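DM from R.C. (forwarded with permission)

"hey, sorry to bug you on a friday — could you get me a structure for this? deadline for the figure draft is monday and I only need the backbone to look sensible"
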Amino acid sequence: MPLQRGIQRFTGITQAMASSAPEPEAVLPRIARMLEGRVLVAHNAQFDRRALRQAFGQIGLKWPRPPVICTVAMARRFAPLVRERKLAALAESLGIEVHEVHRALPDATTCAHILCALLPRMCAAAPTVEDAVDYLQPRRRGTGDALKRAIAKAERPDLSALPSDPGVYIFRNDAGQPLYVGKSVSLRSRARAHFCAPSGWTDRAAIVDYRPTHSELGALVLENRLIKEWRPTGNKALKRTDQWAFVRCRLDIEYPVLDAAADPAPGHAINVGPIKGLRTAQDLADQLTSMFRLRHCGRRLHLREHPSAYGQMGRCCSPCLGDLDPNAYRRQIEKALSVFWSSDARAELLAELDEQMRAASRAQLYERAGSLVRRKERLDRLLWRTEGMLEAMHARPRLVLASHPAKDLWDAFWVVGGRVADWGALPPDPDEIAERTASALRLGARSSRPGSAASVPAAEVDEVRIVASWVARNEPPALELADGVGAADWALSVSRPAATDAATQPGRPSPAARESL
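My reply, with the result:
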């Protein structure tokens, strides 16, 4: 039937566009072939499935009955705080840019992006497509499954005490032993989801308690610490540390060497990291060893009468000949490691490579110039990949504020010396903020730069990674700390903007007034 004018104004789809579309007989057989062995994903899938099934029936084509996943149902389960679930609104709430609406391909692309954003959360609850389809089915009353669910609900732990706030929930057995530790920005909604797709530990869960936080970041940090401490059986995917590595330099010998390993070196040593991937860390160590003419052999130094092969190629300063001052060698070690925590040193290293390339070109040594070009590109790329995490681990001391998703509440994090030195609910007393800031600065003073004796323990690598990635993704208010002066005034001005807003914008209502409106 002809499109109404209101529909044309609302969607921007004109009658001419609809009339020029191909006939169902030309399109639906191709769709049937595309659906074979595949999953149909749609936004508000019940409407699309019904419309397609009717269209197939009108032309006498058998409906292939593919498994259907609805992104609205996914948002209802895995993004419970998002109240507006229209396609564009839901996409924007998940950080997906929407440039065009009410067009077939842009809407399908937006739907695919929503699926990708919510898929990791769904996979945690439903590992197979069959489980996912069943998990997202609407809960109908009066059926046998509903009776089973009612019985299961009566047997599950009492979840009524869980708030709809950020925090960590802990399921325990009858003896009080932790079975599973989880986190969420809405504790009640997330804890209920575990019983929609039961796991091995859910039938043993008898008690549930929680520890509230004021922010999502607080929940992430607390969950990581509790899993590390308790190692509950339900948390099969414990926080891994084997994907991180360190560039190490042990200083207990006269002529130290650079190597890479999954754990930092104990004792008197310099450890740079964590770096994503052991291969990347080893590549960096090899590149710096060659650039600064460090030892390529192992820790034990064998004296030689003649230089090694690396020494003959000019890629080693040959301490094995016994005539090299150890202090001069240590200066080379310091220069090599300084590229990790000094942007000036990195710039000088790349500039030196540029100069060597130009010198090789002037001497018509084009193969050497080409190898130097490749080395510069490789080294620049490696340093760029590691810069973000090293900055997170060893940046200047910072005070980071993370807010509650809906309320005027804040968590404060003091990140000093590459560690979360202190964190918790932001104190209302400025004297307490100043005292905790000074205490955090004293605690992290010994590990204020990479390679110091008090390096970040391996058990805390995950925590710093969690904080760094959350800060990079959400860009919360952060203050660099020098001596801690002014931290209290800054934190209170950020967390209590109502008075400032009322003074500068008298016509603007306070947050409480906006919430009541």
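R.C.: lifesaver. The CA atoms of residues 91 and 377 lie 37 Å apart.
me: no worries. The first strand starts at residue 40 and ends at 42.
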